[in-house]
């Protein structure tokens, strides 16, 4: 008897992705798709994709999908979720999209406690447009628009999205993860699952930030890129759960 | 009822269930009314963090198949242009109200018609059009708003109600009539969750030039169809007119009074009032050119719709313009004077040219 132990998640189509070799966008897609499958919500799910390298994600996820304009995914997701409260809505956004042009939209979706889940890809750079400085670019990091390295006296400081959003009462679950090792991938998947479960329970806004690689624009090999995430990025953007849903009083008293 | 409130109530009667907005004078009564009334009919009012967010919430709700509306005024509508371009590209239905105020920039809060170009020529990027109506009374605004949702659904296109501060703020009696719904096909394209079907994708990204051109051609064909089916206009004392005033919205009401004043002075004037601004009633206006000696476009702007009048008339008759801006509404007296100037100039030209076509107008007011 043949038993299938590993396969493509139903929530992913068979379309090959266009991501560069060594880019972790693909791993994150798979994690999100596996969670959708495991929760059995594929046919209730609507995904909102960004402007950025993930702009074609609607070809890869096997559920209803909509393309938002640059930065506006949280507003689009809000419109869908308000119109279809029983749907499961997630947005998938890069750091240029979420932390620069769309800062207002993400802050206010979180502040409203909008019942959506956000997958946030922080690769410290603008990937799709060719490696310009992002709001998350590390101090000293070279990009095509910070060729001498990000000079904080002129370009200011990176934005720590999880830390910032977790100060908002409307945010329910906020976590930062990476995919640099199998253990980290497993942790990342647990975080995404938690984010979706919070939404299913009507718990409000959830966000999982992935420290993600961009070997192409960082000018590194895939392995070097993962090491750089572990060493440099994780130092500036510590991994962990920044906010978890409040346990209702009764339950926390141990019954 | 106040114009803004009548529009809000009419929208609900037209099936609107979702409203996303951001405050700006002089249209605040619309979101205020919606925040009160929508929950009563099982709908949702949400105040967005900006007009940019509001129109993108509209995009999301429209994509999910809902009847949805937003309203704003000039500077806010500028911010909505990004979303409108995407909504038009994705062929999603929604209704947008613009209660125009004077501009450019922050401008003022008094009535104006200076967003005509933005409303009818695209506004956002790319080759797209909104369906635009310019109602001239609270009753007409209510009627058109209620119908707008069915029009938007039918053509899968955003519909804009282009009013101005005066229409929004004025009080007039209004009767809410039952809405005539078009025969609509189910929204099988909506992103509602893919239960029992293949997933739907809503996007306006098309990197393949030939395919993007195909979308542009399809949109162009739709706008042409709209042009054949949706042209609306009204006329007043135009049957035997020698001079046609062209004005829309609130301006047309003043122009109507100017027609009466001109008639009293012996000038055979009439009014042509476009109700649909896109599609512009070019063909009926071109017909008027066969009858009149000239046109006078009157607007609360420095001259925007006048360009569409010129295009319709195509040089067959002279097209003149009179307008005031900054929130100043031209008076009937001003319009009369502008018209008299045209008649005088034409008489002078006729005399010099030995043409017997000159016409007189009485210098003392009396009925005609
Ligand atoms: C309004 C607007 N501004 C700019 C762009 C160009 N643009 C496309 S992708 C992008 C940045 C994407 O970077 P990020 O969000 O970090 O995603 P990544 O590509 O790195 O995954 C920009 C600026 C656009 N499409 N629309
Ligand atoms: S450019 Fe960077 S972020 Fe984009 S696909 Fe390539 S590696 Fe990934």
Give the SSE layout.
The complex is a heterodimer of chains A (255) and B (368).
Chain A lengths: L24 H15 L5 E5 L7 H4 L3 E4 L5 H11 L4 E7 H7 L1 H10 L4 E6 L29 H4 L5 H5 L5 E8 L3 H19 L4 E7 L3 H4 L3 H15 L3 E4 L5 H4 L3
Helix pairs in contact in A: 1-8, 4-5
Chain B lengths: L2 H11 L4 E4 L7 H9 L6 E4 L3 H13 L4 E5 L1 H16 L4 E7 L15 H5 L10 E3 L4 H18 L2 E7 H5 L31 E2 L6 H21 L3 E4 L6 E4 L2 H16 L4 E6 L1 E3 L3 H8 L4 E6 L5 H9 L5 E5 L8 H21 L16
Parallel strand pairs in B: 1-2, 1-3, 3-4, 4-6, 5-6, 9-10, 9-12, 12-13
Antiparallel strand pairs in B: 5-11, 8-10
Helix pairs in contact in B: 1-2, 1-6, 3-4, 9-12, 10-11
The complex binds thiamine diphosphate and iron/sulfur cluster.
Iron/sulfur cluster binds next to helix 9 of chain A.
Describe the structure.
The complex is a heterodimer of chains A (255) and B (368). Chain A has 255 residues and is α/β, with parallel strands linked by helices. Chain A has helices at residues 25-39, 57-60, 73-83, 95-101, 103-112, 152-155, 161-165, 182-200, 215-218, 222-236, 249-252, and strands at residues 45-49, 64-67, 88-94, 117-122, 171-178, 205-211, 240-243. In chain A, α2 links the parallel β1 and β2. By secondary structure, chain B is an alpha/beta fold. Chain B contains 12 helices and 13 strands. Chain B has helices spanning 3-13, 29-37, 51-63, 74-89, 116-120, 138-155, 165-169, 209-229, 249-264, 282-289, 305-313, 332-352; strands spanning 18-21, 44-47, 68-72, 94-100, 131-133, 158-164, 201-202, 233-236, 243-246, 269-274, 276-278, 294-299, 319-323. Chain B has a 7-stranded mixed beta sheet, with helices on both faces. In chain B, strands 8-10-9-12-13 form a 5-stranded mixed beta sheet, with helices on both faces. In chain B, α1 packs parallel to α6 and α9 (249-264) packs across α12 (332-352). Chain B is globular, with a radius of gyration of 22 Å. Chains A and B meet through β1, β2, α3 and α5 of A and α3, α4 and β7 of B. Thiamine diphosphate binds at residues 50-54, 70, 94-97, 121, 123, 125-129, 134 of chain A.
């Amino acid at each position: 008897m043949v038993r299938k132990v590993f396969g493509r998640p139903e929530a992913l189509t068979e379309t090959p992705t266009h991501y560069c070799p060594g880019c972790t966008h693909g791993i994150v897609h798979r994690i999100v798709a596996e969670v959708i499958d495991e929760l059995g919500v594929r046919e209730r799910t609507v995904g909102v994709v960004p402007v950025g390298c993930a702009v074609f994600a609607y070809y890869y996820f096997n559920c209803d999908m909509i393309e938002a304009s640059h930065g506006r995914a949280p507003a689009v997701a809000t419109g869908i979720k308000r119109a279809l409260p029983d749907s499961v809505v997630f947005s998938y956004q890069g750091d240029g999209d979420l932390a620069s042009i769309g800062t207002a939209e993400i802050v206010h979706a979180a502040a409203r406690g909008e019942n959506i889940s956000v997958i946030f890809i922080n690769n410290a750079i603008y990937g799709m447009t060719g490696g310009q400085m992002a709001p998350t670019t590390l101090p000293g990091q070279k990009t095509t628009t910070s060729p001498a390295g990000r000079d904080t006296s002129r370009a200011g400081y990176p934005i720590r999205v999880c830390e910032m959003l977790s100060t908002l009462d409307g945010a329910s679950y906020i976590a930062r993860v990476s995919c640099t090792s199998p253990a980290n991938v497993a942790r990342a998947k647990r975080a995404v699952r938690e984010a979706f479960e919070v939404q299913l329970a009507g718990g409000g806004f959830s966000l999982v930030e992935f420290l993600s690689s961009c070997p192409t624009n960082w000018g590194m090999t895939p392995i070097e890129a993962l090491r750089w995430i572990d060493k440099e990025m994780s130092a500036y953007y510590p991994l962990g759960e920044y906010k978890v849903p409040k346990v209702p009083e009764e339950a926390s008293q141990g019954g | 009822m106040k114009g803004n409130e009548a529009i809000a109530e009419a929208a609900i009667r037209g099936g609107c269930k979702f409203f996303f907005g951001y405050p700006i004078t002089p249209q605040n009564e619309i979101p205020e009314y919606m925040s009160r009334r929508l929950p009563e009919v099982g709908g949702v009012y949400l105040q967005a963090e900006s007009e940019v967010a509001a129109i993108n919430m509209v995009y999301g709700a429209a994509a999910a198949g809902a009847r949805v509306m937003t309203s704003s005024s000039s500077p806010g509508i500028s911010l909505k242009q990004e979303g409108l371009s995407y909504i038009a590209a994705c062929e999603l239905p929604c209704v947008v109200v613009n209660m125009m105020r004077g501009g450019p920039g922050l401008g003022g809060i008094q009535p104006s018609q200076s967003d005509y170009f933005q409303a009818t020529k695209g506004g956002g990027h790319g080759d797209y059009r909104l369906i635009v109506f310019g109602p001239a009374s609270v009753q007409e605004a209510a009627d058109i708003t209620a119908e707008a949702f069915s029009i938007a659904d039918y053509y899968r296109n955003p519909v804009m109600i282009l009013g101005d501060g005066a229409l929004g703020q004025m009080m007039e009696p209004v009767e809410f009539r039952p809405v005539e719904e078009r025969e609509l096909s189910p929204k099988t394209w909506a992103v509602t969750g893919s239960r029992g079907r293949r997933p739907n994708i809503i996007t306006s990204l098309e990197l393949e030039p030939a395919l993007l051109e195909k979308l542009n051609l399809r949109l162009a064909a739709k706008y042409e169809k709209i042009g054949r089916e949706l042209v609306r206009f009204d006329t007043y004392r135009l049957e035997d007119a020698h001079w046609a005033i062209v004005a829309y919205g609130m301006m047309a009401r003043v122009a109507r009074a100017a027609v009466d004043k001109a008639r009293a002075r012996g000038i055979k004037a009439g009014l042509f009032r476009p109700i649909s601004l896109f599609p512009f009633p070019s063909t009926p206006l071109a017909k008027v050119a066969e009858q009149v000696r000239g046109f006078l476009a009157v607007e609360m702007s420095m001259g925007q719709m006048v360009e569409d009048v010129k295009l319709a008339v195509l040089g067959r008759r002279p097209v003149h313009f009179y307008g005031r801006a900054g929130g100043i509404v031209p008076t009937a007296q001003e319009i009369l004077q502008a018209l008299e100037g045209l008649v005088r100039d034409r008489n002078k030209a006729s005399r010099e040219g030995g043409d017997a076509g000159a016409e007189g107008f009485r210098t003392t007011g009396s009925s005609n």
